């Protein structure tokens, strides 16, 4: 119960962060799929609901403050505030303001994994010879948060109202609890907020027990990635719990991994403040 309450609170924080950057997603492909053809120096990877959005905001502020983008880049100064913050939150475009900056792409790498039986998992080709930052979280908390995201704060409520609702993302769930169908379950079809890709009787415990996508998948994900580290050019692992407990220290380690040195303490402290729940609210 305590874990569920804590994870539910974390969902609220992430929802606030996502609400703040939702307009950016629509315009700039905030959640776009990364490919080998994209120009990036590092790749941030995580299982869903591991704190990726918060880390992305932390890094955006840390980069902008350390490299003094607004002060030193004429190109950045010419941008209106909203355009500038769109680039800040997407991370990758920030490198266009300063050639010293790393180009960090963000990806779940779950197309191949989340709803696939673990015996059939294939190493994502995107990670081959890549410098990877792997963000991990206690799989118990990640699973609870993932349940609330998929069952309560799912994409159906945010999709274009002119588009028909569908549950294609879950077609490979292969749940023993219910048979997948493309049409969502709705208490009131006229109100998207009442719709879900899971039936009304579907519980947190049902999701935890799922063979594909549940707790076992979340727990296995980190081990799988670590076991495949020899195929990556470099790997740095950061725990969400450590990032919460010691944000400045962990952020400094990440910046060093990206090759960004001599970052001032007050810069990191300000980045943490700017990316806090209170500041985003």
Structure description:
It is a single chain. The protein is of the alpha/beta class. It has twelve helices and six strands. It has helices at residues 2-28, 52-66, 69-72, 74-78, 81-90, 139-151, 204-208, 215-227, 240-245, 247-257, 265-274, 277-280; strands at residues 42-46, 104-107, 131-136, 185-186, 195-196, 234-239. The strands form two sheets. It has a four-stranded parallel β-sheet, with helices on both faces. Strands 4-5 form a two-stranded antiparallel ribbon. Strand 4 (185-186) and strand 5 (195-196) form a beta hairpin. Helix 6 (139-151) packs across helix 8. The longest helix is centred in the first third of the chain and has 27 residues, at 2-28.
Give the % helix: 40-55%
Q: What structural category do the secondary elements indicate?
A: alpha/beta
- Beta-strand proportion: 5-15%
Assembly annotation:
single chain
Give me the side-by-side strand order of the main sheet. Answer: 2-1-3-6
Order of helices and strands: HEHHHHEEHEEHHEHHHH
Shape: globular
Question: Summarize this, please?
Answer:
The chain is of the alpha/beta class and 281 residues long.
């Amino acid at each position: 119960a305590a874990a569920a309450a804590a994870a539910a609170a974390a969902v609220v924080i992430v929802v606030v962060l996502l609400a703040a950057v939702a307009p950016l997603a629509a315009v700039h492909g905030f959640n776009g799929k990364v490919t080998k053809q994209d120009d990036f120096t590092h790749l941030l990877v995580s299982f869903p609901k591991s704190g990726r959005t918060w880390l992305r905001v932390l890094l955006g502020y840390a980069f902008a403050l350390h490299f003094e983008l607004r002060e030193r880049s004429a190109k950045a100064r010419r941008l209106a505030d909203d355009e500038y913050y769109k680039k800040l939150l997407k991370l990758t475009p920030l490198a266009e303001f300063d050639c010293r900056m790393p180009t960090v792409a963000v990806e779940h790498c779950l197309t191949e994994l989340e709803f696939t039986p673990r015996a059939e998992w294939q190493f994502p080709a995107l990670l081959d010879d890549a410098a990877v930052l792997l963000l991990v979280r206690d799989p118990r908390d990640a699973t609870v948060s993932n349940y609330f995201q998929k069952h309560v704060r799912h994409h159906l409520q945010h999709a274009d109202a002119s588009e028909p609702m569908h549950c294609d993302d879950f077609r490979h769930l292969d749940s023993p609890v219910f048979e997948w169908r493309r049409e969502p379950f709705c208490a009131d079809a006229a109100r998207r907020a009442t719709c879900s890709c899971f039936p009304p009787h579907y519980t947190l415990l049902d999701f935890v027990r799922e063979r594909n996508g549940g707790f076992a998948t979340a727990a296995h994900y980190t081990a799988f990635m670590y076991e495949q580290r020899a195929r990556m050019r470099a790997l740095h692992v950061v725990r969400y719990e450590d990032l919460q407990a010691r944000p400045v220290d962990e952020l400094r380690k990440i910046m060093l991994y990206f090759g960004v040195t001599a970052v001032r303490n007050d810069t990191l402290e300000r980045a943490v403040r700017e990316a806090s729940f209170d500041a985003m609210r």
